[in-house]
Amino acid sequence: MFDHLVKFIQDKYKTNTFIPLHEPSFIGKEKELVSKTIESTFVSSVGKYLDKFEEELAKFTGRNKSIAILNGTSALHLSMLMAGVKPGDCIVTQSLTF
């Protein structure tokens, strides 16, 4: 059933072997920017890189503001609250978040 999808992904990664869920890829200034962020001590919920990310995401989505959320589970929870989901409502979503 999923053979076409598996073939597509294997072709994309040019392999017929196991493809890990996430394999970091550093092809630009990532190492430099991560080091600068660590040195600034702003590595989680505040700082100029987070501010810049939120600004760029707002521009990209055509919104006035955007907010970076801690992880996928928190983002799903917040989106459910904002959508007005109440106890007893039936919601279908993915089972894997980060």
Protein model, in words:
- With about 100 residues, the protein is mainly alpha-helical.
- It has a domain at about 30-85.
- Helices cover about 50% and strands about 0% of the residues.
- It is built from 4 helices and no strands.
- The protein has helices spanning about 5-10, 30-40, 50-60, 70-85.
- The chain starts with a helix and ends in a 15-residue tail after the last helix.
- The relative contact order is 0.06.
Outline the secondary-structure elements.
Blueprint: H1 3-12, H2 30-40, H3 48-61, H4 72-83
Overview features:
mainly alpha, 98 residues, single chain
Determine the strand fraction and express it as a percent band.
Answer: under 5%
Order of SSEs: HHHH
Please give the share of residues in helix: 40-55%
Query: Unreliable runs, pLDDT <50, ≥5 residues?
Result: none
Quick summary of this structure?
The chain is mainly α. The protein has helices at residues 3-12, 30-40, 48-61, 72-83.
